[in-house]
Amino acid sequence: MMRFSEYQESNDRFYDKPDTPAGQLLQLLLISTGLAGEVGEVTEPIKKMVATGKEVDPDALAYELGDVLSYIAAIASTFGISMEAVAAANRTKLQGRYHGKVAKLTPPEELPQVDKTSTFAR
User: For the whole prediction, is pTM greater than 0.90?
Assistant: First the structure.
């Protein structure tokens, strides 16, 4: 199994390292917008599953999640942050948020209903 540090080091080879502040900013913008696009690629099949019942292809989803991971690793590297530090910080945040408990979803029938008298509902 690959460690985060190995993945990050390997991933860094795919991204240019501009030597000017303007180039670095442009590279960060390209990586960030790439991440946003790939997140859409991950959510689209899940949306279709929820809306239509279409099954999600796990291999295709893993492929898209890999693209998201690549962009996250690139952003972390840009700021000198190791992926181990990202994972550890996230684990700490989640443990603090959920206090070791599993997050539970609210059943749809218990969600608040849309106020149809609202100005926005017209």
Answer: no
